[in-house]
Specification:
The structure holds 2 protein chains of 2 kinds.
Chain A (H helix, E strand, L loop, with lengths): L8 E2 L3 H6 L3 E5 L2 E6 L4 H10 L1 E5 L4 E6 L3 H6 L14 E7 L5 E11 L2 E6 L4 H12 L4 E4 L3 E7 L3 H8 L11 E7 L4 E7 L8 E7 H12 L4 E3 L2 H10 L41 H10 L7 E7 L10 E3 L5 E11 L4 E8 L9 E6 L2 E8 L12
Parallel strand pairs in A: 1-3, 4-14
Antiparallel strand pairs in A: 2-3, 4-10, 5-8, 5-9, 6-7, 7-8, 10-13, 11-12, 12-13, 15-18, 15-20, 16-17, 16-19, 17-18, 19-20
Helix pairs in contact in A: 2-7
Chain B lengths: L2 E3 L4 E6 L2 E6 L1 H7 L2 E5 L6 E2 L4 E7 L3 E5 L4 E6 L1 H5 L3 H4 L8 E5 L11 H10 L3
Classes of the chains: A alpha+beta, B alpha+beta.
Chain lengths: 382, 125
């Protein structure tokens, strides 16, 4: 995206971010808050210990409606949509014919004939066109640009939100529903899920744009809650081991290469009742069946053994000094307080404990392959 | 001796042909929380505009350039141990390195505080 400030879109809460002292930056075609005056590290730590409010209204929200919606959506993603119960959410991948990933997304079964989907902001125009072109004759594809999306994340998110919307505390991770938020001055009808992108317990709240400001102010008035920018959102998701589309995942990476094969349910794999039938199925199913040797690279987590940040595009070498891969995301994790990274390396270097070198300004920084998440996650599973 | 400023948002203070170099308040604010610095080797000579040091926040990395040709005489070990000094006291305890300049007059072309304040305001976005 190379939008100039003049052409940047504004989210419904733009004026609130500015009033809160946010630094606004271009992101996915929108002017978005990257950090507030407290700064990225304080915001990150606040989210890990209390509750942070994120505006993610740049993301794409849409509904797929009709009796054939679930089956139609299954023709675009290698996930089990048909058997996803009403009230539950799942992680999904839009694939292309080469087995690459067009976008990663969350989808929620609102009703037997309705699926709610959240896609990445930078991809939403293309995603919606793709979905419309592929399955628009089988179900209604309804973009929801008139809705804002807020995320409330952190161990105390449930305390803050349940005060305004009693009942949300009963939800478990990856479930959701319609709730009424009572701000004191007004009642706001929202749709929310207990999920997020930080590794913490929390909620994502879809709210009509005209009510977004009242909802955000009511949440920020809770003693646990502070506004958190996209900078901390990135460091939080990286510590949680969650890939970022465009950095760690893109149209050239397959689900197996990205180590996201866990997201492909058995029913869509070879031998499953609804095996295949999604773009790139032949390649993806072959990689799933083939074991470690079926791909030339894997996404791994790396932990630096020296206190030198290792950033995206840094070259990874084996200990003999040969180039074996590249970092796709990396920073000094504020909670783990060590440099962490995601990188692609050949499968023979993907085993936990394998030592490699990241070449930072010409000097090798020793790193080892570690399990992700880098920081324990705290999803609420009941 | 007054402080001079470079277009790269660094400050230089000259005392007896030894220049002390750091990043400005504007630079530290733009970077955000500084978590890492890479400081030059003492005794090494750099040309003007050479990248002599590195400063990194969680979200970004930036080079710290040599404001004029010179030889590194001292680096700030306190900053290496606590990079947040670059945020909390950028013009004081958060200095990066000292260098003996080959030609101290090289600094004459840099901005004074009034010019830099205007320059930083114009480059705020």
């Amino acid at each position: 995206m190379s939008a100039t400030p003049d052409t940047l879109l504004k989210v419904p809460l733009n004026d609130l971010h500015v009033a809160l002292g946010a630094r606004m930056v271009p992101f996915a075609g929108y002017s978005m808050p990257v950090q507030y005056p407290e700064g990225l590290i304080a915001e990150h730590k606040h989210t890990r210990t209390a509750a942070g409010l994120f505006d993610v209204s740049h993301m794409g929200q849409l509904r797929l409606v009709g009796p054939d919606a679930a089956a139609a959506f299954e023709s675009l993603i290698p996930m089990d949509v048909i058997d996803l119960p009403v009230g539950k959410q799942r992680y999904g991948l839009l694939t292309n014919d080469a087995g690459g990933i067009i976008d990663d997304l969350m989808f929620f079964r609102k009703a037997a004939n309705e699926i709610f989907v959240i896609v990445n902001g930078a991809c939403k125009v293309g995603d919606i066109a793709h979905i419309q072109a592929q399955i628009g004759t089988r179900c209604q594809v309804i973009p929801m640009p008139e809705f804002a999306l807020l995320a409330l994340q952190g161990p105390k998110a449930v305390n803050a939100l349940s005060r305004l919307a009693p009942g949300v505390e009963k939800l478990v991770f990856m479930t959701g529903g319609n709730f009424t938020v009572n701000t004191g001055a007004e009642s706001i009808d929202v749709f929310l899920t207990r999920s997020g992108y930080t590794g913490e317990d929390g909620f994502e709240i879809s709210v009509p744009a005209p009510q977004a400001l009242a909802l955000a102010k009511a949440l920020l008035a809770q003693p646990e809650v502070k506004p958190i920018g996209l900078g901390a959102r990135n460091s939080l998701r990286l510590e949680a081991g969650l890939p970022l589309y465009g950095n760690d995942v893109d149209t050239t990476t397959t689900p197996v290469e990205t180590s996201l094969q866990w997201a492909i349910q058995k029913v869509r794999r070879t031998g499953g009742a609804r095996a295949g039938g999604f773009p790139g199925a032949s390649k993806i199913l072959a990689q799933l069946a083939g074991g470690a040797g079926a791909t030339s690279r894997k996404r791994v987590g790396l932990l630096a053994l020296e206190r030198v940040p290792v950033r995206e595009h840094v070259e990874i070498q084996n200990t003999a000094g040969q180039r074996i891969g590249e970092v796709t995301s990396g920073l000094l994790g504020p909670t783990i307080d060590q440099p962490i990274a995601m990188a692609y390396v050949p499968p023979e270097f993907a085993a936990l404990g394998t030592q490699v070198n990241a070449i930072v300004r010409g000097k090798p920084v020793p790193m080892k392959v570690v399990a992700m998440p880098f920081v324990p996650t705290h999803y609420f599973r009941g | 001796m007054s402080i001079k400023y470079t277009p790269d948002h660094e400050w230089v203070k000259l005392e007896n042909s030894i220049a002390t170099v750091g990043i400005t308040h504007h630079a530290q604010d733009a970077l955000g929380d500084v978590v890492f610095v890479d400081l030059p080797e003492i005794g090494k000579t750099y040309a003007q505009k050479d990248a002599a040091a590195v400063v990194e926040s969680v979200k970004a990395a930036a080079d710290v350039y040599m404001p004029a040709k010179g030889e590194i005489t001292e680096v700030n070990e306190a900053l290496r141990a606590d990079p947040s000094l670059a945020n909390s006291d950028p013009l004081g305890a958060g200095w990066f390195f000292k260098a003996k300049l080959a030609n101290p007059a090289d600094l004459d072309k840099l901005m004074d505080e009034t010019s830099y304040t205007k320059y930083a305001a114009d480059n705020a976005h």
